[in-house]
Amino acid sequence: MQISLPSPLLLDAGLASLLESKGHNLDHPLWSAFLLKENPQAIFEAHLEHLHAGAQIITTASYQASLPGFKEIGIDRREANKLLQLSVQLAVEARDTFLQKQNTDIWIAASLGPYGAYLADGSEYRGNYGISRKDLTSFHRERVEAMMETEADIFACETLPSLEEALVLAELMQEYRKAAWISFSCQDGERTNEGQKLLTCAEALESFEEIFAIGVNCSPPQYVLSLIQELKKSQTKKQIIVYPNSGELYHPEDKTWSGKSNLKTCASWASTWIEAGADIIGGCCRMLPAHLNEMKIALKE
User: Fold this and answer.
1) Which whole-number Å values give the CA distances from 297 to 30, 159, 266, in the listed order?
2) In the 3-class helix/strand/coil scheme, how is 191-241 assigned residue by residue?
3) Is the peptide bond before 244 cis (omega within 30 degrees of 0)?
4) Both ends of the chain: CA-CA distance in Å?
5) SS3 at position 251
6) Closest C-alpha among 248, 238, 237, 300 to residue 270
7) Angle at CA 81, nearest 5°, toward 39 and 252?
8) Do 214 and 180 contact (CB within 8 A), yes or no?
9) How far apart are CA 107 and CA 32, in angstroms?
10) 136, 210, 214, 271: most buried, per Cβ within 10 A?
11) Chain centroid to CA 277: how far?
């Protein structure tokens, strides 16, 4: 399945960050996915807030959701699949509610976070999981199969620290004939968190028709321009997607943040990224609807 979305498009911001700002405690191995069971209304309202801020793509609350993760808190496979599917349904309901008073196109992306997100120890910022390719494929296949039974328009294979995991997901998208983007977490302006060159990753993914976009997320914003340039060097025909963190520094050892973000700087970044060739932009951790609104204004200027 080969698709191409209109450009430029605005992706939503950090779903978990918005939920935390509303007072929800996400200090749980399932992170925002925990609310699928405990408070799905909060997720619906967060999606709706992103849409009102200008998001044209919303990603589901399934980033850290997985069958093994649910099993560890006593949720069986059947209920786990229902919760994964609920993550899409909540996004669908938010979109439909929003479109009652708006006439626009909204896409729903089923979020597939990395294996490292299931580990809940910051492994998406390191890679090198020490897991076999077979087991990694099995882990992702279970979620893909559950999500195939939903109204998700596309899949978001995100925060991937390594080329190997990206290829596993690209092969699954090819097998299930589902359009998806792949975005990497990066340590600098050239390499993924596991150390591969982003240029090499783009070249390795070019032949997968189902992967319509490639890019970076959950990475420092100061590296994004260089990373876009690396993707351009690959001569990729895929769209480019970027949605970095706010600029604050994450400390995985105690799950805290330091530093500050700036709304106006965020808007300036947005214009620069689009000029450099990005087709889809948005925000990840610590990015909120206010940041998104500044991006929207910048894109209209």
Assistant:
1) 34, 26, 11
2) EECCCCEHHHHHHHHCCCCCEEEEEEECCCHHHHHHHHHHHHHCCCCCEEE
3) no
4) 34
5) strand
6) 300
7) 65
8) no
9) 20
10) 214
11) 19
Q: What is the pLDDT of residues 165-201, one digit of tens each?
A: 999 999 999 999 999 999 999 999 999 999 999 999 9
C-alpha span between 217 and 273 (Å, rounded): 13
Of residues 167, 283, 175, the one with CA closest to residue 214: 167
DSSP of 44-104? HHHHHHHHHTT-SEEE-TTTT--HHHHHTTT--HHHHHHHHHHHHHHHHHHHHHHHTS--S
Do the beta carbons of residue 169 and residue 211 sit within 8 Å?
no
Query: Which CA distances in Å does 52 have to 55, 93, 293?
Result: 7, 14, 9
| Closest C-alpha among 159, 168, 169, 158 to residue 124 | 159
**Greatest CA separation found in the chain?**
51
Any residues with CB less than 8 A from the CB of 106 and at least 6 apart, and which? 51, 55, 56, 57, 58, 95, 98, 99
Cα separations in angstroms, 162 against 50, 128, 197: 29, 8, 10
- Per-residue pLDDT tens digits for 185-243: 999 999 999 999 999 999 999 999 999 999 999 998 999 999 999 999 999 999 999 99
What is the rounded CA–CA span in Å between residue 121 and residue 46?
25
Q: How far apart are CA 78 and CA 231, in angstroms?
A: 40
Give the chain's radius of gyration (CA, Å).
Answer: 17
- The alpha carbon of 38 is separated from its chain's Cα centroid by a whole number of angstroms, namely 22
For residue 131, give the amino acid letter. I
